[in-house]
Write a structure and sequence with these properties.
The structure is a homodimer. Chain A has seven helices and eleven strands. The first copy, chain A, has two domains: 127 residues, Sandwich (Jelly Rolls), CATH 2.60.120.10; 85 residues, Orthogonal Bundle (Arc Repressor Mutant, subunit A), CATH 1.10.10. Chain A starts with 12 loop residues before the first helix and ends in a 20-residue tail after the last helix. The first copy, chain A, is an alpha+beta fold. Chain A is 40% helix and 20% strand. The interface between A and B is large, with 67 and 66 residues. Chain B binds a DNA duplex through helix 6.
DNA sequence: CGTTTGGTTGATGTATGTCAATATTAGTGG
DNA sequence: CCACTAATATTGACATACATCAACCAAACG
C-alpha cells in the first residue's frame, strides 16, 4: 500500500503504515490459499470477514438475475477488501479468485473493535475505501464516456500502474501477467467478448499492446496512453505522471 | 441519514447517530447558501473542507479534457460529501450545485482530528463512504449492463427512494422535484440528451413516468420497477446464489 | 488423443449517437 | 404585461459502434 503524494495527504503516510501493520497484527489465522475460480464471498450472503490480499488477483462481481455479469472491482496484492463487512450484514456482490490466491482475513467484529480503538487503523481502512472510490469514479467515467478502445487501453494501463506501484514504485511495467480471460475482460468493461477480441486484435496489429497467454505486453506505451488519456483522472499539470512511492 | 436494517449492521445505528451529531457539533460557521449552477469545489483544485448537504441537490462531476462530461454522484440532503478531503489534497472532480443549496462545512483538519478522537464520528464518516461506494457499484452495473431504458428507470427510482427515505422512511415517493435537465441526465447516464428525451417520451406515452417541469411523476410504479429490476442491488431474499461454485 | 475452454473471424442486426431544424419554456429588461 | 433572448425540449433523417449469431480454430488438459 503506497500512495501518490501529489494526490494523497502526505501527513497521513505514517498513520497509514501503522494502520497497515495494525491490520496484520490482528490476523490470527494463517493465510488461506484459494484456487483460481473459487468464490471467496458468495453474492447475497451474510458475511463477517475483512480480507487482505497477499498474492494473486481477486474481483468483486455482480450477477444480475437474468444472467448478465458485471465486474465491479479488481483487487491486486496489498489491497484490503470487504471492509464493508464492518458496516453491512450482506455482501450484495460476490468476490471471486481470478487466479490462485493467498489472503489473510479478520473477523469484522474484532476489526471493528480495533477500528474504534486505534485511529491509525481506522484511517487505514477508510483510506482503502476512499481509494476504491477513486477507482470506481474512474470506472464510471470509463463506462459512461469511453469508447471500447479507450476503455481497454485504460484498464490495461491501470493494471500496469497498480502492479508496478507495489513492486517498484516505477512508471508502470511493460509486461505483466493478467489472469482475466477475454470473456471476463468483457464483463469488466461492459463489452461483448467478441468485441473485446476485435479491439485487442486492432491494438495488436497496430503494435501498441498484445494480450496473449494471460500476458500483457505493452509495445508502445505512449500510444496506449494517448488512447487512454481522456479517461485519466486528475488531468493535472504536466502529464499523466507515475504514481510515486510512499510508505517506508 | 437512515439505513436499511436488512442491509446495514443494526448494532451501528447508535454510533451513526452519535457520529452525525458529532459532525454537526463541529460546524463552526453558519450554513452557506449556494445558488444553482455554482461550483462548490472546482475540479483539480486543492481543497480542505468536508460538507454536509442541508437542502438542495449537489453533484460530483468530471469533465474530460475533450469536453465530455460524466456525473459521478448526485448528493441529496443529509449526505456528507467530500469526506475524501481528509485523505487527498486535490479533488479530481468538481462538485456543483444542481439547485439552490444550503450546506455546512468543516475544515478537513479539524474533522480529521475529531475523526481520530471519536470512533462514532469515524464510523459515521466511513459509513458515508461505504454508502457512496454502494451507489457507485450500482452505477457501474447500470452503465456497464443496462439499456438506456433500464438506466433511466433505475435512476428515477433511486432518487425517489433516497428522497422518501429521509422524509418518511417509506417505500418511495410518487412525485418529486428533480432539478436535472435532460442534458445533465444524459451526463449522469452516459447517454445523449436526445436519446434521454426519446426514452422519456416512450415512458410518458406508456403512462409509466413523466418528467416535466423539473418534476418527476411516477404513474405506474410497478411497471417502472419492473424495468429497473435487473439493476437492483442485493437480490436479498434467500436465494440468488447461481454464481459458479467451486471452492476447494 | 479427444474434450474443453478460450480465442478468432465473418455476416448481419440494432440501440444509440450525430446532425440539424423547430418548438417550447423560462428569464430579462423595458 | 409584453417583447426579446437564451435555455431547454422535441422530433426527424441518417450514421455507426457495438451486439448477436454462428461457425471454426488453437491451445490446455486430463
Amino acid at each position: 500500500m503506497s500512495h501518490d503524494h501529489r494526490l494523497h495527504r502526505p501527513e497521513l503516510t505514517g498513520a497509514l503504515a501503522r494502520g497497515d501493520a495494525a491490520f496484520d497484527a490482528l490476523v490470527s489465522e494463517p493465510p488461506r490459499r484459494v484456487p483460481a475460480g473459487a468464490t471467496l464471498i458468495p453474492q447475497g450472503s451474510r458475511h463477517d470477514y475483512v480480507y487482505k490480499l497477499l498474492s494473486g488477483w481477486v474481483a468483486r462481481v455482480r450477477q444480475l438475475p437474468d444472467g448478465r455479469t458485471q465486474y465491479l472491482m479488481v483487487f491486486l496484492p496489498g489491497d484490503i477488501f470487504a471492509v464493508k463487512s464492518m458496516f453491512v450484514v450482506q455482501q450484495p456482490d460476490a468476490v471471486v479468485a481470478l487466479s490462485d490466491v493467498v489472503v489473510s482475513r479478520i473477523d469484522q467484529q474484532r476489526l471493528k473493535a480495533a477500528f474504534d480503538a486505534d485511529p491509525a487503523l481506522a484511517t487505514r481502512c477508510t483510506w482503502q475505501i476512499t481509494e476504491e472510490e477513486r477507482r470506481l469514479h474512474n470506472w464510471v467515467v470509463s463506462l459512461g464516456q469511453g469508447s471500447a478502445e479507450e476503455r481497454i487501453a485504460y484498464v490495461l494501463i491501470e493494471f500496469s500502474r497498480r502492479l508496478a506501484h507495489r513492486d517498484a514504485g516505477g512508471e508502470g511495467v511493460q509486461q505483466y501477467g493478467m489472469p482475466l480471460t477475454q470473456d471476463q475482460l468483457g464483463s469488466v468493461l461492459g463489452l461483448t467478448p467478441v468485441h473485446v477480441n476485435r479491439v485487442l486484435r486492432r491494438l495488436r496489429e497496430d503494435e501498441i499492446v498484445s494480450v496473449r497467454n494471460r500476458t500483457v505486453s505493452i509495445h508502445d506505451l505512449p500510444a496506449l496512453e494517448r488512447l487512454a488519456h481522456p479517461l485519466q483522472d486528475a488531468p493535472m499539470p504536466g502529464e499523466a505522471g507515475a504514481l510515486t512511492e510512499g510508505v517506508a
